[in-house]
Amino acid sequence: MVKLLAALVTATTVVATTNFRQQQFKVCNSDKDCNSGFYCLPTWDGTFAMCQPGNPPAQRNFVCTDHADYYGDDLSNTHTGYQGCVYNCRINPDCNAIAWVQDANGQQGMCYYKHLKDINRQPTSDSRAIKTCKDTPDAPKKVKWVADAGYQVKGDDISTKSNVASVEACESACEATPSCIAVSYIKNSQSCTLKKTADNYYPVWSKAVDLGAVAAFSHTYSACYSNYDYYNQGDVTNFQGSFQDCKKCFDKGGNAFTWYLGPITGMAQPVNPQGTCYCKKVTPPTPIPATITPNAYGGTVFCFQ
């Protein structure tokens, strides 16, 4: 029995070591190509990159143009591959642009690190085998909303407003309120409760009147849909968490998630204080639609990264 257990432990260790090495030496173009706990690091000559264990440097958004250059404003230069050139600028806070001139033969070239005084200036065309890149921070993402009719948000309140004519007006009030991320709206009483946490959601109903209850959650993902799911498709892992916690799925190898209130009681109320995030790796449609036909129930929320 002891020998059998030892053999199983050895086999498990071998598989784990093999998986680690396969991930460690996986060829990559960006950190997104690597699993959680790894980042994309160029080789010593800068000609290509492989996933390596560790925490990645701060993300920067380099927008690149072929056959162009940002003349002047040079900091220094070195001879390396293109990926090494971009990476070295990425980890240098004084560098906000590069120009890389490829050698006549080979995968290396001269890399010119730059600090553009006018970050808004455009590159100048250049007929050489040259690529130039500029750190261009992403514009703030537009806040979007996903709404679940028949539900209310479980989470910490900021305030409750009266005489709010619609859920859209309630969402606008949330956007204008610091730390607000979700709302509970009741059309029957025109009440709008602003929430600073969205731990879970729960169904509400009345036999006497139509409450017009809506739970709505703000997000900046490509798209989110209520009562929709990629059921049993591309599941990576799952964990209990708030709607905001589900973004951790993107650090766990997923590119989408499903958030569900369950498990539930016989009265369809959630058992746990927080919902469940189901992380998924799926192939999204092209283009990703703004709306989609529901295929699930229970207020399930599905989001593409």
What is the element layout, followed by pairings?
Elements: H1 2-24, E1 27-28, E2 38-42, E3 49-53, E4 62-66, E5 68-69, E6 74-81, H2 82-90, E7 97-102, E8 108-114, E9 124-125, E10 130-135, E11 144-149, E12 151-154, E13 157-161, H3 167-175, E14 182-186, E15 191-195, E16 200-203, E17 213-219, E18 223-226, E19 235-241, E20 256-260, E21 275-280, E22 301-304
Antiparallel strand pairs: 1-3, 2-3, 4-10, 5-9, 6-8, 7-8, 7-10, 11-17, 12-16, 13-15, 14-15, 14-17, 18-22, 19-21, 20-21, 20-22
Protein name: Secreted protein
Signal peptide: 1-16
Keywords: Signal
What does this entry look like structurally?
By secondary structure, the protein is mostly beta strands. It has 2 domains: 62-135, Hepatocyte Growth Factor (3-Layer(bba) Sandwich); 144-304, Hepatocyte Growth Factor (3-Layer(bba) Sandwich). Helix content is 13%, strand content 36%. The protein has 3 helices and 22 strands. Strands 4-10-7-8-6 form a 5-stranded antiparallel β-sheet, with helices on one face. The protein has a 5-stranded antiparallel β-sheet with strand order 11-17-14-15-13, with helices on one face. A hairpin with a 6-residue loop joins strand 2 (38-42) and strand 3 (49-53). The longest helix is centred in the N-terminal third of the chain and has 23 residues, at 2-24. The relative contact order is 0.11. Mean pLDDT is 90; it is low at 2-19.
